[in-house]
Design goal:
192 residues, alpha+beta, Conserved hypothetical protein from pyrococcus furiosus pfu- 392566-001, ParB domain, four-stranded mixed β-sheet
Length: 192
């Protein structure tokens, strides 16, 4: 491990026009993400600063800057980190996003929180998804909601049910089972 340079943090507010993109920044920010950041900033303000070096080159927060610009802001909360080597700047650029992506999301707990909130305007989640969680709708991938009893109208007679069952039996009879083989190169099972 390389010897750590002595770094100093300075909290300040800067004009957005002074901030520069990090050359070769590997992180791409979609329109959907920028829109979500704008919504979040409109709701809560800029609660995380943009991180840059002493030359105002952004190390963390390219998306935040884009969202602030989209909002029409002229300034941003910034933390200037002084004393980083060029390698440390590059490491921080890629480590910041990587470390954040390493967390495991427990969706059971997320759903509990969504139910407690009980609202359809949680940033980053579609209203349809939120409605499904809040109202415990559980449609399968064909759009059938199994939480509701089946609707059997006048046309659902025993004869109709028998015809539907016969149709399914014909379909199943024509299906072939899954065959597998082992790849001679990697030893992986392959279904075909």
């Amino acid at each position: 491990m390389a010897k750590q340079a002595k770094v100093k943090h300075e909290e300040t507010t800067l004009n957005l026009s002074l901030l520069k993109d990090f050359p070769g920044n590997p992180n791409t920010h979609t329109h959907a993400q920028i829109d979500a950041l704008v919504q979040s900033m409109e709701r809560y303000g800029q609660y995380y600063p943009i991180i840059c070096d002493e030359d105002y080159q952004i190390l963390c927060g390219h998306g935040k800057r884009l969202a602030l610009e989209k909002k029409g802001e002229k300034t941003a909360k910034v933390t200037i980190i002084r004393g980083l080597t060029e390698k440390q700047k590059m490491k921080l650029l890629i480590e910041d996003n990587k470390i954040q992506s390493m967390s495991y999301v427990n969706f059971t707990e997320v759903e509990k929180i969504i139910k407690q909130i009980g609202e359809l305007d949680i940033i980053g989640f579609s209203p349809e998804y939120l409605d499904t969680i809040i109202n415990e709708i559980s449609p399968d991938n064909m759009g059938v909601d199994f939480t509701k009893p089946p609707q059997r109208g006048d046309n659902f007679t025993p004869e109709h049910e028998a015809a539907v069952d016969a149709q399914f039996e014909n379909i199943e009879a024509g299906m072939s089972g899954v065959r597998t083989m082992t790849c001679p190169h990697c030893g992986q099972l392959i279904n075909f």
